[in-house]
Design brief:
This is Heme peroxidase. Helices cover 47% and strands 10% of the residues. The protein is built from 10 helices and 6 strands. α2 packs across α3. A hairpin with a 2-residue loop joins β5 and β6. By secondary structure, the protein is α+β, with helices and mostly antiparallel strands. Bound molecules: protoporphyrin IX containing FE.
């Protein structure tokens, strides 16, 4: 994994992915261009620091990255040869153009109204140490994704609902906690990721222990 120095690294507003934004902020990935293989390796290694050591297949991440800057033959070749431009994801084929959560605005800042809306979908969850907190399991995430898709009626593509499956459920897999009632995303963990571009401390500890 890359070496970190100083404070958090600045992240382009044109990178709308909360997960990639955190990887740039922590210095694991550059803000501009990175080879696809490196993006795939860093994402997979970060995922392995999640609870239960989640496995994200590198090839799947590689495939998603391959199309993220554009589907035309020139874009595809450019990404393949020169890497993924993390600061040029906005406007690309994976950009749902406001059909998603809306948690981040076009400048990459957190929208407080959207955070309250997300909180409305969260339920009280029991942690494996017996304490409880607000969180979102798969049923809550499904309801949230459906609502995000529904409110975008008229300006959504049918593929947008499918793209969400590669976002929130994957985040649940990577950053979720295993409670007696099943795996859930801690609401505070989600807010920290989107707002502060930070991974949960338990993941950071495992990542540090490895480097
Ligand atoms: C090469 C890898 C990846 C690329 C190119 C990518 C790209 C993107 C893009 C373009 C968006 C914005 C979509 C929108 O308009 O709402 C996005 C959102 C998102 N991504 Fe990623 N992503 C990648 C990997 C990941 C991974 C590994 C995770 C989870 C661990 C993840 C979780 C999310 C989430 C939760 C959102 C927010 C959706 C919303 O706000 O509704 N992404 N990603």
């Amino acid at each position: 994994m890359g070496k970190k120095s100083g404070g958090p690294h600045p992240v382009s507003a044109n990178n709308p992915c909360p997960f990639l934004r955190a990887l740039v902020a922590t210095g694991e990935l550059a803000d501009d261009r990175e080879p696809l293989a490196k993006v795939a390796a860093v994402v997979a290694a970060t995922a392995r620091a999640g609870d239960g050591r989640p496995v994200l297949p590198r090839m799947a991440v590689y495939a998603i990255g391959s199309v993220a800057n554009g589907l035309g033959p020139l874009s595809l070749a450019d990404t393949q040869w020169h890497g993924l431009q993390l600061n040029a994801l906005r406007g690309g084929p994976l950009d749902k153009k406001g059909v998603g959560s809306g948690l981040l605005d076009a400048r990459g800042a957190i929208d407080a109204k959207e955070v309250s809306r997300l909180r409305g979908f969260a339920k009280e969850k029991t942690n494996d140490d017996g304490s409880s907190e607000l969180g979102l399991g798969l049923p809550e995430l499904r309801a949230y994704m459906d609502a995000n898709f529904a409110r975008a009626a008229g300006r959504r593509r049918s593929i947008d609902r499918a793209l969400m499956i590669g976002e929130w459920p994957v985040l649940l897999n990577v950053m979720g906690k295993e409670g007696p009632g099943g795996r859930y995303l801690g609401l505070q963990d989600v807010i920290d990721l989107f707002k502060n571009r930070k991974f949960p401390e338990r993941m950071n500890k495992r990542l540090r222990a490895r480097s």
